[in-house]
Amino acid sequence: MLPQVSVVVPCRDAGHWLPACLASLCRQQGVDLELLLVDDGSCDDSQAVARRSWGDCPWPMRLLQAGGRGVSAARNLGWRAARYSLVAFLDADDLALPDRLQNQAAMFMADPDLQHVLCGWQRIDAQGRALAAVRPWEEGAGFSTREALRHKAVLPSAWMLRREALEAVGGFDVTLQQAEDVDLLLRLARSGHSGAWVPEVLCGYRVHEAAASRRARPQARALSLVVERHLRQLTASPDDQRLAAEVRYGTRAWLGWYAWTCGDHPLALELWSTALGLSPFMPALTWVHLAENAVRSAARLGSPAELDVLLGSPLWDRLQERWWQGRRQPRLESAPSPTCGETLDWTAVQRGQVGAALQGWSGQLRAQLQLVNGAEPQGPWLPSALEAWCLGQGPLATLQLAVLRWSEQLLRLTDQPRSAEKLQADLAAILLEWGLLSWAEDRRPAEQRLEQSIAVLPTAGALTALARLQAPIHPPGARALHQLAAGAPVAGAEVPPTTHLPTAFWEDSATTPDSCRGPQCPPCLEQQLRPWSAVPLDHGLVHWRPPADAAARGSPKQATGEDGDDREARQLAVLEGGQAWLRPPLRNAWRSTHGFSIADHREHPLPVFSRRYPQPWSGVCPCPQPSPEPPPPLLPLQLRGTVIALLGLSAETYYHWLLEVLPGLGWLQHHHPHLLGREVRIWHNGGTSAHVEETLQRCFGIGPERLLDARTLPWIQAERLVAISPLPFGNPSSAAQDWLRRTLLPQSHLDPKASGSAIWLRRGSAARRPVFGEDEVLELLAPLGVQAVDCGRLPVAEQAALVAEAGLVISPHGGAMANLVFAAPSATVVELHHPDYRPPYYQWLVPARGFRYLSQAQSARPPALYRDLLFESPATEPILLDPLRVAAAIRSLL
Predict the structure, then answer these.
(1) DSSP annotation string for 506-538
(2) Which of 135, 438, 483, 864 could pair with 445 as two cysteines, CB 3.0-4.6 Å apart?
(3) Whether pLDDT at 103 is above 50
(4) What H or E segment, with its residue span, contains residue 89?
């Protein structure tokens, strides 16, 4: 038996369109249908036309009289008179494309719980010519309340519903003449009626001057009313209120564009101006979105974008003036109550209330530094105490020092406007400098800092830099930003030069935008650790037990050569005229390698041998690998003979050099020893630290005269280039670990019996992620016989021997943790880590080494202002140890 569908066609003076509409229904197959033609007070011959057009169709038609009460009442009259349980709507000037009814009905037959179904639609002009296909599901449109509010994607002529769903919510709202379909969609969503898309274009939606949707002002009023009606039903939760702000803004942004296309420029200016004030985004991002929305909306409708016309219009000039007026000088409000929240609230800045934001941040910082009620200033987080840590070299230390001095000024904020104006200008400059510092390394933090700088105090330079950043992904938005920068007021426009910024890797046309967050990607990390068992112990200790299969796969091996899994993981490339380059690490503030490529003689990178941050966690990230690093803006250095490229991400650090980079050369020595002749040179990026030369000399007999520093020679082309594929990021293979033990430990330590000794691997006040409170903890642990070891002062072999003999190894995260590869299977290892950052570097050593691994999260975090402005992420925030809690935990283990 064929599915039965009642088709409701409301009409009013539609005699011109009805023949084509009804003919498209007559051509439907795979269903039994009845036609309910609802005449809503026509003055033409619509009914006669309908009878003639339907005369040869095999299905029944019923004519109903709606009496001119509007399209909502007409549709309701139709579905209430329907005989069948499935009801489809089709407006009289639209078309049902082949298979529309059959394919929609099939979805209902397959899913008894499904309540309504939409398909895509083809926009056509008055003559029936195709304009553009609309596929809302491709843009994330859906049927939950959140999805329906965000996208409001619905068309009656593309809709089929169960009659019981219409009865449950009362059908269309007869008080609405426009946006009635959006209202019904939202009521269905709120009441939990499930919907779905038929991912096909099965409806023809005719666009002509008489269409109701072309009346801009009634459309704006109706849609705004409907949206507000449903937003009032949301809860007061932060998530729901964020959604409400996004929907209010998005609705007015779209309606502004719609009014512009209808020629109602005063209405467009009113709606877009309101959108600027309601936007939940930073002001510059809002400006980008307005331009992008105009282009995307035009493309969705098959119309020319006419961006040049829009940007050159008097309306857009007036909108720019209003944008600049909204970024006025700070006005000090009544001081808000101090908060101890762990994040910095930028809401007031987004709204142009910079003075209120500064006052709120000042109170928050004073509270978190415990400077209230006349308390004596003390503690490691005071700006003056942190200054000693920032007195390093390079632009990063200089910028962090500027943040600390600005923080001191913030603490002294008064109610004098000039005080706030100085803080505002200095903060905008700091944020701009952060953006420029991040520019060549990661577009995401650069974009965030530039947007924040513009929100605090917009300048032509910051807008121009952001426009360049947006250009590869949002060209219309970038053009709008350039024009906005050109209209900047003279006052306050002086900024550091941005025109000579280096070309960043993300500006290369072959580079796809990064989707993974790399080592700081919480979903990836959660997936990576899911198979592990976390057993809570006393004093906040957690015992991490690996999954049984990981322990079996990674059990220590005693073979003399590299094992099979490493042979399969590594690949070799010997390239005549091969090239290698890296992103010059000495030119970034972090002095570490963030991307490198191995390429053939034609500069075509080999993805297997190339790496770039963000590097996904091994085997669990659904995001694609980052595209290869493009070559730097230099010419390659020509090298004669054979050169081995020995590279790794962040190879300048001890962990990545020892566990990821150096074993690659060991693999080459074992499997292809002929490639390691005495005349071969090593082009490496390990830097000039003592452990680099020591390990190359000790393990391979390679002296400094054969080394080429890739950091100072960032692009080479060798007569013959040898490349070894890297292992998965941060996850050294068991073979690599075994090779390190055999190579760097004395024979007597290869199968060690750990003694009862306890050692602490110091990290100290390292420039990156220092540890505070270490001396206090060591003072408490001294009576227990815990020995503090400063690994940075010892040769690698001596570090290895000390760790191999220890029964208990305690280490703040990052404290020479590569040395845990030498720990005895009977040892216990304790990691002390930041509460928000514990990547599984320690855990990945457990299956192969077999030691007992415990962790303890420290409870303290830096003040919110520092977390936002001083540090890039939890990965670089200091670890503040709790001496009593740490000492109690270690005492329980001893």
Answers:
(1) GGSTTPPPP---GGG-HHHHHHHHTTSEEEE-G
(2) 438
(3) yes
(4) strand 86-89
